[in-house]
Amino acid sequence: MALNKKTEFPAPIQSFASFAKLLSHPARIAILEVLAKRQTCVCGEIVDELPLAQSTVSQHLKELKEGGLVKGEIEGTSSCYCINWENFNQMSDAFILSLNTIKEFQRENGSCC
């Protein structure tokens, strides 16, 4: 069985990869946009704005919640979700920092091809 080598990389690179994985599906980006527009949202309202089944939206919300980008509470028969702005800002800052680091290497070293 192969060993997971993720922990061998620096924390900023791990954070960049985690954030990129959370944003790797267009549905999750669309969900974040809906939540950002509305501040809070009931899952049914998200479904109304996306071309996806409720179960699919729920699965993507679960991924976003487990990844720390979304907070959610169950209120009776519905769930209310919002963006976890503290985590979102930390992850997006690390993502941008990593991209800028990569761009800086290109500026310093030019293009190889």
TrEMBL record:
Record keywords: DNA-binding, Transcription, Transcription regulation
HTH arsR-type domain residues: 8-103
Matching Gene3D superfamilies: Winged helix-like DNA-binding domain superfamily/Winged helix DNA-binding domain (1.10.10.10)
Key word Cell membrane present: no
Entries under SUPFAM superfamilies matching the protein: Winged helix' DNA-binding domain
Domain of life: Bacteria
GO MF annotation, one: DNA binding
Record flagged with keyword Hydrolase: no
PANTHER family for the chain: REGULATORY PROTEIN ARSR, TRANSCRIPTIONAL REGULATOR, ARSR FAMILY
Protein name from the UniProt record: ArsR family transcriptional regulator
